[in-house]
Amino acid sequence: GMEYDAATYTPLYRLISGEPGHSHAIEIARRYGMPERIIASAREMLGTAGADFTALLAELRRKREELEEARRELERERDQVRTARADLERRSADIERGRRESADKARDEARELISAARRRMNELLEEYKREQRSETIEKLRRAETEISEGITRQLGGDDRPPLREIGPGSAVHVASLGHDGMVLLVDERHAKARVRAGSMEVDVALADLSAPLKRAKEQPRKPAPGVWRADVAESDQQELKLIGLRVEEALDLLEPFLNHAALGGLREVRIIHGMGTGRLRDAVREHLERHPLVLEFRPGGPHEGRDGATVVTLRQ
Q: How many angstroms separate the CA atoms of 189 and 233, rounded?
């Protein structure tokens, strides 16, 4: 059918597919001045069938327009949903980018803090070697406490339970190293403790210690009582085993190992890193190349682990 304007009965020149057209002949005839008696006669001849048909078509057209308006509204809502989803995706991307930037910034600040701490410790070690004074030892103790507390604050704490009691033989977790160990000696006066972590011994602040998440099945042997010392035992400090550790974990253990070995006056130490893919070995040797306490290093000999170990000569 062809569509007409229902108010003016003028053609709109639009084809309506699927809907029969209907005639507006009587209404158009009236508009053009056809006598009313002829129009009335024509209506009487048509009866109600024509009017009913016209009314039905009008109802169909009304419903079609309602459906068309509902379709347009649905399309508008669909566009709004697309816009809202795009906005949410953009906000999510902004949040994720901000989270990554914050994490990168925190890591950079932590690296800078650790680098500054290493420089300070090396300066104090050099001063100790030159002067051998008790004031320098006290500076080392205070510096180590500040460094441990600073790293703990920078990297954030964990959910490990606090230590209720601490003494020789206590199992502990050293936050600044990220490793569990056993307390050998406690120095209450200076709020420090000597801890064995793997094959090495370190002196750490009591604030750096917390309870380990899992205790070993066997309790470590309780060491004999002694006096807290700033130096280190040569037999315990000549080797550091790093096999099975990630690079970051290994370097965290390597730095205090070298510092304590130098403080103890050792001339040569051995670092056991294994062969593996060579990534850990390369990272260790790269670290040694720029370390101020290292004079030189070489692969292990036939009875020293060959390329699975690195023998380090320290500056005196």
A: 22
Contacts 24+ apart (CB under 8 A), 261-264: 261/232, 261/237, 261/314, 262/125, 262/129, 262/293, 262/314, 262/315, 263/125, 263/128, 263/140, 263/230, 263/231, 263/232, 264/231, 264/232, 264/233, 264/234, 264/237
214 three-class SS = coil
This prediction's pTM: 0.34
The two structure tokens encoding residue 220 = 């470590």
pLDDT tens for residues 91-103?
888 888 888 888 8
Three-state secondary structure readout of 78-135: HHHHHHHHHHHHHHHHHHHHHHHHHHHHHHHHHHHHHHHHHHHHHHHHHHHHHHCCHH
* Residue 308: closest CA among 222, 220, 241: 241
- pLDDT value at residue 138: 63
